Fold:
Amino acid sequence: MTQDAFSKTQITTASDQVFVDMRREIVEGSIEQGSKISEPELAKRYGVSRATLREALNRLESCYLIERKANVGCRVVALTAERLIEVYQVRSALEGLACRLAADNMAADEVQSLKQLLNQHLQTQRVKEGESYYQEAGDLDFHYRIIKASKNDHLIHLLSNGLYQLIRMYRVQMGMVGPRVSKAFDEHLAIINAIENHDGELAELLMKRHISASQANIQAKFERYQSM
Amino acid sequence: MTQDAFSKTQITTASDQVFVDMRREIVEGSIEQGSKISEPELAKRYGVSRATLREALNRLESCYLIERKANVGCRVVALTAERLIEVYQVRSALEGLACRLAADNMAADEVQSLKQLLNQHLQTQRVKEGESYYQEAGDLDFHYRIIKASKNDHLIHLLSNGLYQLIRMYRVQMGMVGPRVSKAFDEHLAIINAIENHDGELAELLMKRHISASQANIQAKFERYQSM
DNA sequence: TAACCATGAATTGTCGACAATCTTAAAGAA
DNA sequence: TTCTTTAAGATTGTCGACAATTCATGGTTA
Structure:
């Protein structure tokens, strides 16, 4: 079944629940990056059998949060500078594409709704000065809307189920809060304008730059983090 | 474990074997596209338990060859025109990126080796006139080398484990053999030249065009196929 | 007739136990 | 000492059975 990263999807089975729980714990760092995973231990902790746990592990592997080796076991993905660059290169290409498609497809009222969302975020931001949660959530929300507007289901799945948890893991564990708030807002605005004008080429370019800026930001933080 | 789509990776476990076997059968159409999958039936057929089979099913889902619904079951992916377009849009973006990175990274001797491979394919092509297998394999080989030359492991995984089996499925089941042989060869050559000159921008552009041409080709075939 | 509800069959999800493999640590040889 | 070998322990892979859910069939009612 397709587990969406953003909207709350229906959780029907026990392995669904374990998957969602573990995903959160890994992204937030409760389960440490790079650490070995013991199946018997985790199965006991979540109160399920190993079969159920392994089902969840398989899905976590699909979204790149853990790595498996046959007859050896699972390990939580390790956050490295190299991987960060790799992931952002892919993200840039895919979200650039999504943005171009959105510019082609998005109807006028959808654009208006997106603009409204952005203004709303700005207001919330002003009120809750310094509070980082809203920024992160707002940013995610903005990107997710554009991704969905691409109307390309395969692309949507690839980004929201495949890449975004890993990206979030870097951001959360690096404690991304930051001075990029207002700048990011301007960039978002420029992207919306390009989409509104159905200028796919420009929208793609702007999105790629926006993501590059985000990468530079997090990368700097990562290097500072590693030198400690 | 990471199952590579091209190079023959070590098969250690029973579910590995089932995964590889089923993958081939799905891609080649022995297991019909869109058909429902019965776990008990297939488990018996492959001579393994359901647990082992389900492990394989999970991996097949990761490379987009089957789709699961909770408490309902699995279904082989259905080949549709819409999905074909979606997949090729993603492929274009990702392989364009790979090609650009390859142009940045590839050493002179690697480029030479790739050129040699291409010439070799041309010769084989001339000898085995009309035989399509070599063309298909040659094309795959060429693309795979460039993908690997990107040196971006995440991208490599995404393409070779994620997208290529699905693309192959379309190509195989549409019976792609065809008049694009010599044209594709010229396009490949132009791409290599751009890479050799470390002109990443051009290499990316040419690769995207090459893939677009390939898409147009298979799409036409698909529409002809569907109208029958 | 058509729509709706039981009931049973079949399928998927989950469990605990066994087999195969890897890891660790101790014992022995160079 | 250091490297190799071996045996015990622990971990993963696989199996068959049970529980929960869905699907198909037939019967009932409007």
